[in-house]
Amino acid sequence: MKHTCEHRAQCMKVIQAILDDEATEAEKDHFRENMDTCIPCIEAYRLEKCIKDSLNHKIEKKPCPESILNTILTKINS
User: Fold this and answer.
1) Are 3 and 11 within 8 A, CB to CB?
2) Which of 12, 25, 51, 61 has the most CB atoms within 10 Å of its CB?
3) pTM
4) Domain for residue 3, yes or no?
5) 21-61 pLDDT, tens digit each
6) Residue 49 neighbours by CB distance under 10 Å
């Protein structure tokens, strides 16, 4: 098992993509292989997943008011 990760920044990007369901199959496969040997990546994945799960359970999801949406779209299109 590795105790340091020489690709920490890249691994964190992949972890975020996996947790957001945006990772490619190649990224998922590479990360699964890496998870078997890299302690920092295992710990980072567990922490990020825990944070994401906590936020999903604690935050009330509200739709954006139509007026704000229209204001944003107007500014984007002008």
Assistant:
1) no
2) 12
3) 0.69
4) no
5) 999 999 999 888 888 889 999 999 999 999 999 988 888 87
6) 13
How many independent structural domains does the chain possess? 1
Cα three-residue angle 4-9-61, rounded to 5 degrees: 120
User: Which residue type, as a one-letter code, is found at position 78?
Assistant: S
Rounded to whole angstroms, the Cα distance separating 43 from 18 reads 15
Q: Residue 69's domain spans which residues?
A: 8-77
In 3D space, the residue among 31, 3, 26, 4 whose CA is nearest the CA of residue 15 turns out to be 31
Give the tokens for residue 52: 């994401």
DSSP-based three-state secondary structure for 24: coil
Question: Using only C-alpha atoms, what is the Rg of the chain?
Answer: 18
Give the chain's length.
Answer: 78
